[in-house]
Amino acid sequence: MLGGSRLEEYKDLPVDVRDEVKRLVGMIGCPKRVRREVQREIFSRLAEVLRDCASPEETQVRTEELMSQFGNPEQLAILCRRAAKRTRPLWRRLIGRVRLAIFLLVVIASTYTTLFVTGKPVVTYEYLVKLNETNRPDGPTTSNACPYYERACSLLVEPNEYLKETSAFKKDGAYEFQGFAAMDNRERKTLVQWVAANESAWDYYRRGSRKRWYYKPYLRDPNRPTAPTLIDIMIDPWLAQLKDLARIGTWKARMDARDGRFAEAIDHCMVVARTGTHLQAQVSLIAQLLGAGTGAMARSELLRTVSVDGFPEGMSGNVQSQIADLYEGAYPSVSFEGERLMVLDSVQHTFTSGGFGGGHLIPGQVTPFVTAALELPEGRRTTIFQRVVLWPMDVGISMIHARRDKTVAKIHETYNEVDERSKLSPCERRARSIGDWRELADSISIYRYGLVQMLLPNESRVSELPFRLRAEHEATLIVLALKRSRTEKGNYPSDLESLVRMGFLPSVPSDPYSDGPLIYKRCDDDFVLYSVGPDFVDGGGRGGVDDEGATRLWADNGDRVFWPFRDAVE
């Protein structure tokens, strides 16, 4: 049955043996190629066994044993199956392997998909611990303002609806206040009653402001069914109340200044300013911004008080010392460390921990954001839309999004960049051609790092604010130093360097919007002090305006005038 060339290989086998093998193979009901392969395997086995036989008798015995085995139907069936596999056409072998590969892929994909879709986050409180460690100051608990602020907030009496709707109350900033004469009797009376009703709250607020620091630990609610995120935990209801207490302080300062009690008016401003420094030292970005705004409110009101007719300029030196002592060192820049911890905490709430099928964005995290962005109402149609459209999209985004370890690395990379940018003044950013936060956001792939991009704060706006407020803080010190100079020397100096030489000022502050100092000009019996402002152009002390022509602080079409105080608003 074998071809001649292949049969030649087994010509040393006994003829009767070869004939018996041919007879046995001929009885197999298989295709010819299979029978040939079976015959070749039997010949090969016989040749291998009989090669070492020492005598014809031994050859005969071994031949009979082997033929008996090959004649066994089970053994012969095994030979046939092996031969069928070996002689199978290439295309059939390929199809078989492809089918096996597909089967294995389906099993693996099904297992992975099950683990992928059903993955759960593993939430710990390490970031909450880090947050509190970052926020915790050194010192005795008796130096903590927290108990006093807590009491003040609990005693706060909210303004009534009438007062909230008055124009004087809605526009009560130092640069907007038009004086008590612009208010009618009912407004004045209601305002005085509201301030008087909060005397107890103000007393605790004032006492708290005199403490060295403010520390309120962030705590989780153990009764919540699910672990809250840091974003939830860091929502502080006191912040709005502390802001209202600061407003009370500014109204008290105005009332005292109106009645000629300037020392009391300045003291109220300093109470508000010290509370601002407490908040600025917090790790929460919202608290920092509120603290910076509170300090700015206090300084603006202080400058307004100094501009009131009859203010005794002999007080300027003492007020300047108090303002200078607000901060230990330079005016603080903003810290994004709390934001970094919040985003890292969001990762542990939205990603699985790791392992096979793990370490990925859990499906279902994007749907709530899309629903909220589209402002979809609750109901059956929204539910169907979420299941049919949003859920498959959500799963696809989860598969595309970078894994947890890479996402965490991207967060650190991004916030390291944010920290570096926050240290640059607007003038330095402009010189280095550094764009705003949108340029940074656009550099982050929305598909691979959507979570990082979505939670990125407005870095450029937030980072610019401290430079503006630092300029206002330093401008306040300059104004007081100039007032002090005139009281002690009889006139204003010709330049700011003279204030430094006379010891009234430690150094000449720089303008965040130029490569030079804040600009000072002596004018008759007064002076002008300003920054060139966000347009980076020296307008000679001419303030910017909004679209309606009203003067606006830090406008991008004019200077920021610090003094004369009224020139900043008129």
Radius of gyration: 42 Å
List the helices and strands in order: HHHHHHHHHHHHHHHHHHHHHHHHHHEEE
Structural class: mainly alpha
- Assembly classification: single chain
Total number of helices: 26
Distance between the termini: 115 Å
Taking the sheet with the most strands, its summary is: 3 strands, antiparallel
Strands of the widest sheet, in order across it, are 1-2-3
Instruction: Please bin the fraction of helical residues.
Output: 55-70%
β-strand number? 3
Low-confidence stretches: 1-5
Residue share in β-strands: under 5%
Mean pLDDT, all residues: 83
**Form type:** elongated
Architecture overview:
The structure is a single chain. With 570 residues, the chain is an all-alpha fold. Among the domains are: 4-88; 344-462, no CATH class. It has 26 helices and three strands. It has a three-stranded antiparallel sheet with strand order 1-2-3, with helices on one face. Helix 8 (146-155) packs antiparallel against helix 12 (199-209), helix 15 (262-280) runs antiparallel to helix 16 (285-307) and helix 16 packs parallel to helix 25. The radius of gyration is 42 Å and the shape is elongated. Mean pLDDT is 83; it is low at 1-5.
